[in-house]
């Protein structure tokens, strides 16, 4: 789509001509022309990058204005966005088919339109009728929420200009196309160019645009991550299909932290914010069974209490396996290796299964000690006191390493009525705990074993 244009520019005065001249007609200078090549492109991508020429500014002299954020009316959604939506930003929401992306955005559009005025929901995949059926189910009935069934992005943009909405949803980016480009909707070129075009539109109108993106089998957003560079915010909507919990997680956010999690429950009338996730995740817990422990993990600024379950059984066939749900399998293998070397407990001839209940995935090392204790507890068939919460990272030497935000983790447990917290000795200095919870600090795995199993 790009064309190269040749031109001759006078280096003294900037006079431009299509042919080289000996003498400049403007400043009368001799031999001052040099040839330059200009790339003229119809691609929105190039327009994003070069639509204006800026000059460098001293950062100390730049005055930044605080942006006023919009709120979706779904506190968990706003939390992941970094405390609300920044106008002019483009937010990509990815996730497996059927996880609830359209549901989430239809609910958010409804709330936004009630608060701020016109919102345009562009459905490129479902008919207006289908969207209406969904909105009936969700109780979405705003007078200012518009639905548009269209795939041509130029026409969508015309409608945006006409309607002047306060927010736009494009469901999905794979279903729209620009006629300038020959390739089919959903191809990398179309996805990239359409996203760039929408970025220009968002900045020009100063409105947020949400893009729904499908995830490929490999787990990437379709169009090998090209979109992730273009947009301001990338959110993933995930969860086990057969669980009712859904987690919204930011992997990129130009306007906030990427640590925050938003937790929702999928009910038959749509998604509902989970206000007290710790309580919920522990609510259907069986007490006094071996291999079950409660850990306190930090997700962004919020502590989450979760149950870790482990099952260690002799391998009957072939090589032993580790299976982990909600936690990295390699981390489990590492913990089993530490157990073998430092405690002398060899479970090399057994299959180990570790599960974080509730369908949540945790990447944080602060749950190491809990996972380790769950494995030992099940292996020894000795239940761990159900009112104890276990916190700590395990080092390769068997030492228990400190974790950040220890106070918040322990206070969350105290709030939910836990009577004991086992935590790293290195964290001792920085603890000021409210409520009555017994504090037991441990230096290494041996200390922990003595206390817990
Ligand atoms: P959907 O939003 O269509 O998913 P996506 O856009 O990510 O493909 O969600 C579809 C699933 O959600 C579907 O399996 C039914 C379920 N669902 C509910 O459980 N409750 C509801 O109120 C709605 C609208 C959907
Ligand atoms: Mg959908």
Short recap of the structure:
The chain has helices at residues 44-50, 75-80, 101-116, 128-138, 153-163, 188-205, 226-230, 277-282, 329-343, 368-380, 406-415, 445-452; strands at residues 2-10, 16-17, 33-41, 90-95, 119-123, 145-148, 167-171, 209-214, 233-238, 245-253, 261-267, 270-273, 292-299, 302-314, 322-325, 350-356, 388-390, 393-394, 400-401, 420-424, 438-442.
- Give the bound compounds: thymidine-5'-diphosphate, magnesium ion
Number of helices, counting only DSSP H or I runs of 4 residues or more: 12
Unreliable spans are none
Major sheet description: 9 strands, mixed
What is the 3D shape?
Answer: elongated
The helix fraction, in percent, is 25-40%
CA gyration radius, whole angstroms: 28 Å
Strand content: 25-35%
Q: Within the largest sheet, what's the order of strands?
A: 6-5-7-8-4-9-10-11-12
Cα-to-Cα separation, first versus last residue: 68 Å
Class computed from helices, strands and strand pairing: alpha/beta
- Report the strand count: 21
Average pLDDT, to the nearest integer?
A: 88
List the helices and strands and how they pair.
Layout: E1 2-10, E2 16-17, E3 33-41, H1 44-50, H2 75-80, E4 90-95, H3 101-116, E5 119-123, H4 128-138, E6 145-148, H5 153-163, E7 167-171, H6 188-205, E8 209-214, H7 226-230, E9 233-238, E10 245-253, E11 261-267, E12 270-273, H8 277-282, E13 292-299, E14 302-314, E15 322-325, H9 329-343, E16 350-356, H10 368-380, E17 388-390, E18 393-394, E19 400-401, H11 406-415, E20 420-424, E21 438-442, H12 445-452
Parallel strand pairs: 4-8, 4-9, 5-6, 5-7, 7-8, 13-17, 15-16, 17-20, 20-21
Antiparallel strand pairs: 1-2, 1-3, 9-10, 10-11, 11-12, 13-14, 14-16, 18-19
Helix pairs in contact: 1-6, 9-10
This protein binds thymidine-5'-diphosphate and magnesium ion (MG).
Residues 101-102, 171 line the site of magnesium ion.
């Amino acid at each position: 789509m790009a064309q190269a244009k040749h031109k001759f520019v006078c280096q003294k005065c900037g006079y431009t001509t299509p042919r080289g001249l000996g003498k400049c007609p403007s400043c009368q200078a001799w031999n001052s022309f040099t040839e330059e090549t200009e790339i003229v492109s119809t691609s929105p991508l190039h327009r994003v990058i070069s639509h204006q020429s800026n000059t460098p500014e001293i950062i100390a002299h730049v005055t930044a204005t605080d942006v006023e954020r919009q709120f979706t009316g779904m506190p968990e959604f706003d939390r992941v966005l970094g405390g609300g939506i920044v106008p002019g930003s483009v937010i990509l929401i990815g996730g497996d088919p059927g996880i609830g992306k359209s549901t989430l955005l239809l609910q958010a559009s409804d709330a936004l339109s009630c608060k701020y005025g016109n919102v345009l929901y562009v459905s490129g995949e479902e008919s207006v009728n289908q969207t209406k059926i969904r909105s009936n189910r969700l109780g979405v009935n705003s007078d200012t929420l518009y639905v548009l069934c269209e795939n041509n992005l130029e026409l969508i943009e015309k409608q945006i200009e006409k309607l002047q909405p306060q927010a736009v949803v494009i469901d999905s980016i794979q279903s729209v196309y620009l006629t300038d480009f020959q390739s089919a909707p959903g191809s990398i070129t179309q996805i990239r160019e359409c996203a760039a075009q929408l970025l220009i539109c968002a900045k020009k109108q100063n409105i947020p645009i949400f893009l729904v993106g499908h995830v490929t089998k490999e787990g990437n957003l379709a169009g090998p991550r090209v979109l992730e560079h273009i947009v301001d915010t990338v959110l993933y909507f995930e969860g086990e299909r057969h669980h009712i919990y859904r987690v919204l997680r930011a992997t990129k956010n130009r306007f906030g932290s990427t640590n925050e999690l938003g937790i929702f429950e999928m009910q038959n009338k749509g998604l509902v914010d989970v206000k007290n996730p710790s309580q919920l995740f522990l609510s259907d817990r069986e007490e006094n069974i071996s291999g079950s422990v409660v850990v306190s993990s930090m997700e962004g600024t919020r502590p989450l209490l979760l149950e870790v379950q482990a099952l260690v059984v002799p391998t009957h066939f072939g090589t032993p396996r580790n299976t982990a749900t909600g936690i990295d399998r390699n981390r489990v293998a590492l913990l089993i290796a530490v157990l073998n070397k430092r405690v002398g407990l060899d479970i090399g001839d057994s299959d180990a299964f570790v599960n974080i209940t509730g369908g949540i995935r945790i990447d944080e090392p602060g749950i190491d000690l809990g996972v380790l204790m769950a494995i030992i507890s099940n292996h020894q068939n000795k239940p761990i006191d159900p009112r104890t919460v276990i916190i700590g990272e395990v080092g390769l030497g068997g030492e228990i390493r400190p974790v950040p935000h220890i106070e918040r983790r322990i206070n969350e447990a105290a709030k939910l009525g836990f009577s004991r917290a086992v935590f790293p000795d290195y964290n001792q200095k920085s603890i000021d705990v409210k409520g009555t919870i017994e504090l037991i600090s441990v230096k290494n795995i041996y200390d922990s074993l003595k206390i817990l199993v």
